[in-house]
Design brief:
mainly alpha
């Protein structure tokens, strides 16, 4: 489906449900990387990347998220993601 419309909201929503329901967190990142390499401006893929990296620690019913020791966000993960995002921004600095 993404081959026809990589920004279809309903497909992304369903994919997030699948990732959460079947605990597919680890296997999603390589696929998202493929989509962002093909189109760095794909905001739906960026949103899904955030969901995969940070959404697994969020309770869907309360919206609150924490890791096992009570930290909201893993500092190393956050630093890596900031650097990743900076590298991608350099590929399309005019992207809004």
């Amino acid at each position: 489906m993404f081959a026809k419309d990589a920004k279809n909201y309903h497909v992304w929503s369903y994919r997030q449900w699948l990732v959460r329901h079947f605990s597919l967190w680890e296997s999603e990142l390589p696929y998202i990387e493929t989509l962002l390499t093909a189109d760095v401006r794909n905001n739906s893929a960026w949103n899904h990347r955030w969901f995969v990296l940070f959404g697994q620690h969020v309770d869907p019913s309360s919206g609150k998220g924490m890791d096992e020791v009570g930290n909201i966000v893993d500092e190393d993960l956050l630093d890596r993601e900031v650097e990743y995002t900076k590298r991608k921004i350099r590929l399309a600095p005019q992207n809004q």
